[in-house]
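<instruction>
Derive structure tokens from the sequence
<entry> Chain with its tokenised backbone below:
===
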Amino acid sequence: MKKLMALALAILGARGELLEVRKIWDAAPHNAFTDLVKHRGLWWCAFREGAAHVSPDGAIRVLVSGDGARWESAALLRSEAGDLRDAKLSVTPSGELMLVAAAALKPGGPARHQTFAWFSNDGREWGDPLAIGEPDYWLWRVVWGEGTAWGIGYDTTGQRRDTRLYRSADGRTFERVTNWVSPGPSANETGLLVEKAGKLTILARRDGEPISALLVRGEPPYKAWQVINLGARVGGPALMRLPDGRLLGAGRLHDGKTRTALFWVKEDGIVEFQALPSGGDSSYPGLVYENGVLWVSYYSSHEGKTSIYLAKVRLE
């Protein structure tokens, strides 16, 4: 019976069924770098708006929807510190929405980047931004597990070339746990899972030579790391553990045609099972799994203008 179940899961894992894709926002000249969460029965999508892929006017737009079809703007977050980038959403143990983004700081100061966090009870009114982590270490994603917030910060100066693990009891004050240096080029953007007993599973992007993503695992006290070279270039990685145990990844793939895709993460590499309608300037998906359907926010320029899309993919 176990062998039959394993075979059935392997067959199901070979593909997904794309149920629908819809554009949900394109108001700014450049709309990009998304994340997605469901909170108190509502869908929340956050992303950057700006004049271009890199521009000093970046702000974070937050959308809300009751059904995933009709979306409206709930908030627009700006910062005098600089260009806000790569919004990430999570829900704290106390039920607040937490939004994390990094500011590319205005030139002339002592640092290039600073990560900030905002908190909200209703997704519309947000508190003042709080600086978290360390300057020039971009906490690209913060996730919660067993009552603790975790994040991986990477060096943005190009001088230290290290990656740092942080944790926080409240999401407001983070402590550095350890430094981790990836083999070859430094890791930067990460998909991060907090699993049982504090085990961390990480899908890490690397640029340089070789350009290949890593699967990284660590357990308390985080002194040793298992590192697997996945042999594929992945941009804007997101990572999820499905209820049946499969490890699902998403991000931008580059082998031949650039696209945003879904894939299984395995010990010997990644296996793509669903390319989303996308191309050109595209990636940075947000993932939510509900009742056998994977909801995916992402951005793409395949229709000419960088816009925000929502896809639904059946996995069962």
